[in-house]
What we know:
Layout: H1 3-10, H2 19-33, H3 43-64, H4 96-101, E1 210-211, E2 214-215
Antiparallel strand pairs: 1-2
Helix pairs in contact: 1-3, 2-3
Amino acid sequence: MKELDRCYQVLGLKPGASLEEVNQAYKDLAFIWHPDRIPQDNPRLQQKAQEKLKEINQAREQLRSLQPQARPVAPQPAPAPRPAPAPSPQPPRTPHSAYARSPQAPQPRYHRPSPFPDLTGADFTGADLSEKDLSGRNLSQANLSHANLSDAFMHKTNLTGATLYRANLFRANLLQANLQQADLREANLVGADLSGADLRGADLRGAAIGSNNRVLVKMTGAILTGAILPDGTVHE
């Protein structure tokens, strides 16, 4: 197999894919295989993720190097100066006082649009949001019960008071997410990363957090004050 064909295959693309397709495929695979998403207590998967990330990095760089580079534009000679046109007669000037009496239209104000729509209270019951990028979104009070959020990227997502009853959050990235008062009962949290997340007052009763007495949820720096833990106890 030719080296370039192998690079396309690594990124899951057909030969001749555009630079945009190469970059998007790289982002998707880097999101899935980033070592931070793999449990630290699984060295075999950690090693595999690091090797996979190195492989897709090399494939992307090699394919990007094939893209045609923009050619510099040769400088054009400056045009010969033209003679200045004869001055045209000027209309009579309006007295300054007339401008003072003239009403001026109000200037419109420019409002920068929000990069993401406000999803407060949105209903995503049973929705398939697997691998979706919801980072930075406002999903406070949203209904995500039974939703599939596996491998979703939810960095700094506002989920205050959201309903995630029986939601599938397998390997979801919830870094620094706001989950205050969220309903996470019976949710699947195996492999999820909740590092730095705010879980104050959240209800996690019956949530799946591991197997065989092993916790498989990353919660480094998470705030759990007042949260109801999977076994029904309240975190002090």
